[in-house]
Amino acid sequence: MELDAFSTVLLWGLVLGAVFGAVAAKTNFCVMGAVSDMVNIGDLGRFRSWLLAIALGISAVAVLEALSLVDMSLTVDNETSNPPYRMPMFVWPRYLLGGFLFGIGMTLGSGCGNKTAVRLGAGNLKSIVVLLCIAAGAYAMLLTDAFYLLFFQWMQPLAIDFTLMDIESQDLGALAAGLSGAGEPATWRWLLAALLSLLLLGWVFKSRAFRRDIDNLAAGLVAGVLIVGAWYVTAGPLGQTLLEEVDFMDQRPYAVGAQSLTFIAPTAHAVQYVEQGFSMTYATFGLAVLVGVILGSFLYALVRGEIRLEWFRRLDDFINHVVGGLLMGVGGILAMGCTVGQGMTGTSTLALGSFLAAASIVFGSALTMKFRYYRLLYEDASSVATLVTVLVDFRILPARFRKLEPL
Questions:
Q1: Strand ranges in 54-163 using DSSP code E only, listed in sequence order
Q2: Taking Cα atoms as reference points, which of 271, 24, 32, 285 lies closest to residue 132?
Q3: What is the largest CA-CA distance in the chain?
Q4: Burial of 375: CB neighbours in 10 Å, binned 0-12, 13-18, 19+
């Protein structure tokens, strides 16, 4: 029986997610872990893996767009993708604050949305609590008035409207063409994508240890390919067919259009899907990917005999994970993505906000790790003294402000 375009897109989401889940479980692909390795022991292996995926996404999307194999404007309700990474209204505070909150949250919650799904598939029951808290925060931000009441009213006046400069998008190609007054955005996208990819790949493969690390190499390569594959599924010929079908539907499916892997908004989609009585109208590509990751991780752990049930042993651990999950839900929607949704998917579109959000996520996570380690070492130190010391470590404050001895 031949599937319609909508069912085919969902099936592809499930398959791509399953591959991601299995590979992430096998290689221990985790951006929070990458930041932890970098901050605590100076190991850049997993961080290079993340950057490899980013470089592949940037270069491949540029090629697909140049060859007209994808149309990044394929959405029903938005002007660009879903979410609208390239929207011309550049609300910079949401990327900074949202990314920072998400970075704190993923550290307290022991991993980002993708890692939480991978751990759940392997039997980590703590991840159920984290995922539910992510969903609660994301649902409140995406499907209630929380975003408008808490953030939109004061952030919107600070936004930069690029259309006032005759720039139709916040992607780096459009910005370069508009600000320089020379060349076309498509040409600039080619050039900037090539330059960024080469710089990232040059730094990534500069490390001999990384070149010999099969797991990190495989993780970065597969993640990058999956990001691009999802774009092709939703923004290529199949995605175009789906939007043609949508025009004839009595009730349009929720959240269709050009999109790739992301893991925060889909948790809110899951709540909505249940609320609506499991109506297929509310089954989304992102939700299919999320389910696929859990399934892929489960199958890998089952085959390897590595399913291990784990629960909280202390109350403070439970509280940290609850707070972390809520911060990831709120921060992920505010920043329009997570370590995958913005860090890999968003950056592949060259959207300025995506780079800002990704950097803020890394900073928030790194700062939280340092803060927690200082508190473990200096139990009697005040939170203010600890924070000031961490900011000195990050060279945000001068060395004379240091309150505690270095770790």
A1: 89-90, 160-161
A2: 271
A3: 72
A4: middle
**Residue 2, pLDDT score:** 58
Contact status, residue 336 vs residue 144, Cβ threshold 8 Å: no
What's the pLDDT score for residue 255? 87
pLDDT of residue 315: 95
How far apart, in whole angstroms, are the C-alpha atoms of residue 200 and residue 349?
16
**pLDDT recorded at residue 1:** 46
Q: Where are the domains of the chain?
A: 5-401
- Bridge partners of 89, per DSSP, are 161
pLDDT for 128 equals 96
Two tokens, residue 274: 């249940």
Amino acid at 157: P
Report, as ranges of residue numbers, the positions in the chain whose pLDDT lies below 70.
Answer: 1-2, 76-80
DSSP H helical ranges for 205-236: 208-211, 214-235
Asked if residue 338 lies in contact with residue 102, where contact means CB atoms within 8 angstroms, the answer is: yes
In three-state secondary structure terms, 310 is: strand
At residue 244, the pLDDT reads 87
Distance CA 38, CA 49 (A): 12
8 A C-beta contact, residue 39 and residue 33? no
Q: Are 297 and 25 within 8 A, CB to CB?
A: yes
The alpha-helical segments, DSSP class H, found in 172-213 are 172-180, 185-204, 208-211
DSSP letter (8 states) at residue 253? P
Q: Report the first-to-last Cα separation within the chain, whole angstroms.
A: 62
Q: What pLDDT score does 369 carry? A: 95
